[in-house]
Amino acid sequence: MTVKEGIIPNPYAESGCHEYEIALRYIDQQRHSEALELLNRCIDIKRRDPSLLYARAVTALALGSYRKAACDLMKTIVLDPGFLHAYKHLGFVQFMLGKDESAMKTLKKGIQIDPYYAAFYCVMGDAYLDQGELDQAKEAFDKALELEPDNVEPHSKIAMYYVAKGDMKGLKLEYEILKTLDAALAEQIGTLFFDIA
Predict the structure, then answer these.
(1) Domains of the chain
(2) Are the C-beta atoms of 70 and 91 separated by less than 8 Å?
(3) Is the pTM of this model over 0.90?
């Protein structure tokens, strides 16, 4: 996760903690342990700042601390019920912890707040894929593609759907689209599935 994927631009840019900005740079540089230390200091000063809690949750995710991330994400949502990235990440974490029903509730709540946020549908589709519910996964990924046709993430997700389904024709179509959106990802798909080196 990079800062660009949800922490900045931040509606709480005036968090009042200089170390917060340094922590965001550390997150971008994948220096997560150092970022966590700074974020903890900031939270000691401002315990109810959703931006700080969210940043710490993202850092905890990067460090594999899913339960800690879930706690901070839930606090973030309580403090700011419109913080869409927090819903997306909480849904993801809940799935990772095997709490599928809770994850679906979280994502559906996020969709009620903003039905045009494609990332919700990507996470939901991943969950359906994991559960072997391929038709529902395709429906979720198609919705994400409808909302953001030029975004790499929905295209990569639908490519995974085609792999799970064994649909090489569909995968080839996504491979061709991804060549223009993300050449490196397309190359990986081509190498793995189409003997393209």
Answers:
(1) 1-102 (1.25.40.10), 116-197 (1.25.40.10)
(2) no
(3) no
